[in-house]
Amino acid sequence: MHTPLTLAAGKLSEVLLGKNQQIRLAMACLLAGGHLLLEDLPGTGKTTLAEALARCFGLQFHRLHFTSDLLPADLTGVEVLEPGTGQFRFQPGPLFCQVLLADEINRASPRSQSALLEAMANGRVSVNSTSHSLPEPFVVIASQNGLDQSGTSPLPESQLDRFLMRLSLGFPDREAEAAMLNGQQASLNQISTGLTPQDLLQTRQAVHAQTVTPALIHYVLDLVHTSREQGPGLSPRASQGLLRAAKAWALLEGARSVTPDHVQAVFGAVAEHRLDGGHRRAVPLSQNLLERVDAFR
Predict the structure, then answer these.
(1) What is the phi/psi pair of residue 32, to 5°?
(2) For the whole model, what pTM was predicted?
(3) Cα(186)–Cα(65) distance, integer angstroms
(4) Rounded distance, CA 297 to CA 290, Å?
(5) CA-CA distance, 54 to 242, in Å (whole number)?
(6) Which residue among 32, 131, 197, 214 is least crowded, i.e. fewest CB within 10 A of its CB?
(7) What distance in Å separates the CA atoms of residue 140 and residue 36, rounded to the nearest whole number?
(8) How far apart are CA 289 and CA 221, in angstroms?
(9) Can you list the alpha helix ranges (DSSP code H) found in 57-116?
(10) What does each of the 297 residues of the chain score in pLDDT, given as a tens digit?
(11) Hey, is 257 helix, strand or coil?
(12) Structural domain boundaries in the chain
């Protein structure tokens, strides 16, 4: 049975060939109300995925390139003096959109990166002690280069924890790349789903309403508490995000209740960047945790 969400995923797969798993994870992140971190080499489709997700739900999209000279006010906005009235008026910055692509986020200074913290956690920004609410929905999709590339600095743990998922698109397989070279890849302008921002907000309510059993809660807690045995581990924010992401995955699968399989499907994307401090490892720590918990059960 085709639903608007499966049709949207199909449209995305026509733009990003051979990346069905990453597309579903990115959609689950969006439906769960989370922010998304994309880490990969240039030219692998990070920007395309971000804009395609925004187009799927008719969301206002803004791309901002993070550079070493970017200031917090360049993100949040400033108060400007009105010559006629002599009063200050708040001029919103590029944060005031529904989907912000923070391009190459780890090239900006830690001070500028920290300007995103309140926005990502609370959906608002504070300028001169005055809070300004951001549009709903509000999503940050950030791309970052590997830390081995020049001019980069690691994201602080507090900011990594605010990203619900981290994904890597990777190179396309031979068949998908051949299709690209043959001109079979759709353009962003061809994405038309009929979905609206209100549809996204309503779908998020449906995600929240997914049935979760006490046994499933204990499975999530097993994973979270095992992660804390040899270090800080996953935070309470991470455990909440993991459950939301599993609910969103279950909804995409057409399931009426969440199972451990749904948790396992999203666990790596939700947990890995929190466990390895943003450094990708040859053997994912999240996979070790799944194996330990499953063996224990």
Answers:
(1) -85, 0
(2) 0.91
(3) 25
(4) 11
(5) 22
(6) 214
(7) 6
(8) 12
(9) 72-76, 110-114
(10) 558 888 889 889 999 999 999 999 999 999 999 999 998 888 888 999 999 999 999 999 999 999 888 998 999 998 888 887 878 888 999 999 999 999 999 888 888 887 888 899 999 998 888 889 999 999 999 998 766 666 677 788 888 999 999 999 888 899 999 999 998 998 888 888 889 999 999 999 999 999 999 999 999 999 999 999 877 889 999 999 999 999 999 999 999 899 999 999 999 999 999 987 655 654 567 788 788 777 655
(11) strand
(12) 1-179, 210-297
Q: Which long-range CB contacts under 8 A does 116-119 form with residues at least 24 apart?
A: 116/75, 116/140, 116/159, 116/162, 117/158, 117/159, 117/162, 119/76, 119/95
Q: Under CATH, which number does the domain 210-297 receive?
A: 1.10.8.80
Look-up: residue for tokens 């549809």? 199
Question: Among the residues of 182-276, which ranges form H helices?
Answer: 197-208, 214-227, 236-253, 260-275
CB 257 within 8 A of CB 211: yes
| Token pair in block for residue 193 | 């789903």
Preceding peptide of 92 cis, ω within 30°: no
Pairwise CA distance, residues 217 & 221, whole Å: 6
Task: Supply 222's token pair.
Answer: 């097993």
Rounded Cα gap, residues 88 and 116, in angstroms:
23
CATH 3.40.50.300 fits 1-179, yes or no: yes
